[in-house]
Structures are given as C-alpha cells and as structure tokens.
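Pasting as-is:
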Amino acid sequence: MKFGIAIPNCHGDYADIHLTTEVAHEAEEAGWDGFFVWDHIGDKWGDEVLDPWVMLTAMAMRTQRVKLGTMVTPVTRRRPWKLAREVATLDQLSNGRVILGVGSGGGIEYINYHEPGDVKTYGERMDEALELLSLLWSGERISYQGEYYQLENVRHLPRPVQQPRVPIWVGGVWPNHKPMRRAARWDGVCPIGKNVNMTGQMTPEQAQACFEYVASQQTADQADQPFAKVQWGRLDGKDRGYDTALVSNYAEVGVNWWIENLSWERGTLQELRSFIRQGPPR
C-alpha cells in the first residue's frame, strides 16, 4: 500500500503557495508516498485559487522522492498539447515523479468561462485528449485527425522521463460505468462514491465492486500491467491501531494507493499539519 495526501488548490490557506509547498516537503519527510492537488481554475468555494501546475512545480523543487500530481485535471477544459507540455516538463523537473489524475469535470468552470461542449460530449473529448497526450509524450512526429482535436506534423521533445508515458489515473463517480471503462484502458482508477461527501469515503465493499468491474473491462495484456486502485479516504488520525486496521480492510479488496482527502471541511491546512507530520499508518 502506498499513501498520498490530496489538498485543494483553492480556499483559505490552501491557496497559500508558500504554505502548500512547505507542507509537501513535510509530507515527504513524514513518509507519505504522494502529494496531490486539485485542479480548479475558478471555483464555487471562493475566489482564492492557485494554479496547480505552478504549485506542483514549487513542490518538485522542495521534494526528492514523493510522487506529485493532480486529483483530478478536467482534461476537456484544457488544450491537450499545452497539458502535454506542462506534464512532460514537470516530469523532467521532478525526475519522473508525476502522476496525471484526470476527469471530465463540469459546473461553473465550464459555464462561467464559456468553455465549449456539453456534458454529453465531455467523455468523448476526453478520450481523444488522452490518446493525444500519449502520442505527444512518445516524442515521435505525429498528425492526428479526431472529431474534436486535430494536429498536423508536430513533435514534442523532450519526452517525459517516464516511458511509455506519465501514468494516467482516471477519476469518476461509482457506480457510473463509463468512467470506469475509460479507467480500464489507462493506468489507474480513482473512484468517488455517489453521494459520498468530502469527509466520507466509499466502503471496502463498494471499492471492491468498482475494481472488479474495471478488471472485467481490461484485456489480458492490460490486466498484466501495473494499475493503481485508489481509495479516496479518511483516516482517524488519533488512533493508530484503528487506522492500521482500516487500511488493512481496504488492502484486502485491492486498494494499493490510499489518498487522504484533506480540505477545509476537516480544518485549515495549518491545523492539519500535525496530522500530516504523523505520517501514514504503515
């Protein structure tokens, strides 16, 4: 089991670039394996929003080992070629420590900014965008003609350190099947349970059902590749024995990445530093 921290890139002191960077350093020192940030550009929770890629770049400069990434990037409100450059550059800077979490997104970040498309086409656009990311990270010269994206005679260098690509983890609401079928084609799944709030989490039984469905959608070759099965979870933080037992229950159903979901609903980032400094329940 690997353990990560996920924090918002918005609201209160979560939008303090100096504090968030220092906390990422402290998380690595405490033994966490990953540090992830939300990817919002304009938010219903307030006007204080940091750019996630600048955040992650600052964190890369203050860490050596911990994995870094987004949970999750709404790919369809990004230009795939720009996102490809950002991720590849960060992977170079961090010496191959980037994980790209992706989702379809929606809401005010599309409506208020008059982003094109609609919820019925977000999934189709994301499938094309993910294919493009993988092609661009190959470093080969490519042309691409899709329904939503077109490229002609382009080559992206330098390649990411990680090959054949930076790992792509797909988020989605379980038990919706479409995002889980998408996840089966990539490198990991980050399910959020339907009607589970920001301080809750899916049960082991729900997680197991999700993972079994994803596995049923994979080819034999896909099933043989490393695959992240993420629990978007919440530890108690006070009873180490309880937390160890809780994590063990999820490990038994296949969870191999525990991402601790921190937000203002559990406290300010300053208040949660002591929890992070405890480290994960190995």
